[in-house]
């Protein structure tokens, strides 16, 4: 391999540049790396944006203007592990206020249809607790939520 790690390619229908700038605006440690344009050989009109390389939260991405053939679905999602409820609220609210669609159990689609799981990292410990009663109470509470509420999950875990 010529570079460390992987680069995720996201397929858009003419929105690659808009999407790249959107994701860079949401996450820290983010930047646009390079914009590639079509030549007279195509595809598409010469000079139009074909790809945008960007980094979001330290992860490498390429946004590709591939056309209408493929769209996002929930089979692929990005999990955002959040340190606290403030981070959960930040990402959830940002995606929702920008035209996102809330789903169950911390899942939300952004305005481009890409799915995200906005999860407090503490939840993993709560539902993986060796005490099956605590884990079950937490899981039942989570299944009733759209945006995850860490204080409510902690109360369910404690049996309150």
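Q: What amino acid sequence fits the structure above?
A:
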């Amino acid at each position: 391999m010529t570079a460390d790690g992987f680069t995720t390619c996201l397929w858009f229908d003419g929105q690659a540049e808009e999407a790249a700038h959107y994701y860079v605006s949401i996450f820290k440690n983010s930047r646009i790396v390079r914009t590639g344009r079509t030549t007279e050989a195509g595809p598409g009109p010469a000079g139009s944006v074909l790809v945008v390389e960007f980094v979001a939260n330290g992860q490498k991405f390429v946004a590709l203007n591939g056309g209408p053939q493929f769209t996002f679905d929930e089979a692929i999602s990005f999990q955002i592990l959040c340190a606290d409820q403030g981070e959960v609220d930040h990402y959830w609210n940002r995606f929702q206020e920008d035209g996102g669609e809330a789903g169950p159990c911390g899942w939300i689609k952004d305005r481009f249809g890409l799915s995200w799981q906005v999860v407090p990292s503490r939840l993993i410990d709560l539902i993986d607790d060796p005490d099956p009663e605590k884990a079950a109470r937490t899981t039942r509470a989570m299944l009733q939520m759209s945006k995850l509420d860490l204080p409510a999950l902690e109360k369910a875990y404690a049996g309150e």
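Q: And what stands out in the fold?
A: The beta strands are 7-12, 31-37, 49-56, 59-65, 77-82, 101-102, 107-109, 115-120.
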